Amino acid sequence: MVEQVKFTEKTIDYAKNPRNQGEMADANAIGEVSNPDCGDSTVMYLKVENDIIQDVTFETFGCAAAVASSSILTEMIKGKTVEEAYKLTEEAVADELGGLPEKKLHCSVIGIEAMRKAIANYRNGVVRSDD
């Protein structure tokens, strides 16, 4: 028997109607992360000026929880300093969605990791690293 995963209405909305989705042509910081265990991957595009995130978009290949988490994360970090954004946790993202089922909590990590990688690239003066 397959166990049914229950999502909040907010999570379902962000999964079905993702905000800030798509590639950003003029991004000056890009972070890309893949999870080999579940197959999810996320690319986070940042437009940073004076250490403030002016714009952010994402592309996620993964489950509803991964898409919803990355989508809401973009809204949470836009207008924040890179330092403030870097300090955000996957728990904060899950809380913003009204909670995620235990077996889907790992899905909120991939967006955070992609964002942190993009910020690290920005701090290192590169748009995208190959590691």
Keywords:
about 130 residues; 3-stranded antiparallel β-sheet; alpha+beta; Sufe protein. Chain: A
In short:
The chain is α+β, with helices and mostly antiparallel strands.
Descriptive overview:
- With 131 residues, this protein is α+β, with helices and mostly antiparallel strands.
- The chain has one domain (10-123): Sufe protein. Chain: A, CATH 3.90.1010.10.
- 39% of the residues lie in helices and 19% in strands.
- It has a three-stranded antiparallel sheet with strand order 1-2-3.
- Strand 1 (29-34) and strand 2 form a beta hairpin.
- The model has no long low-confidence stretch (mean pLDDT 93).
Write the topology of this structure.
Blueprint: H1 9-16, E1 29-34, E2 41-49, E3 52-61, H2 64-77, H3 82-86, H4 90-96, H5 107-123
Helix pairs in contact: 1-2, 2-5, 4-5
| Percent of residues in β-strands | 15-25%
Low-confidence stretches: none
Beginning-to-end CA distance, first to last residue:
40 Å
Physical arrangement of strands within the biggest beta sheet:
1-2-3
What are the secondary-structure elements, in order, as H or E? HEEEHHHH
Highest-level CATH class: Alpha Beta
Backbone structural class: alpha+beta
- Rg computed from alpha carbons, rounded to a whole number of angstroms: 14 Å
Major sheet details: 3 strands, antiparallel
Mean pLDDT: 93
| CATH topology (level 3) name | Sufe protein. Chain: A
Q: What's the number of extended β-strand segments? A: 3
Number of domains: 1
Question: Helix coverage percent of residues?
Answer: 25-40%
Shape: globular
CATH architecture: Alpha-Beta Complex
Q: Work out the helix count.
A: 5
What's the oligomerization state?
single chain
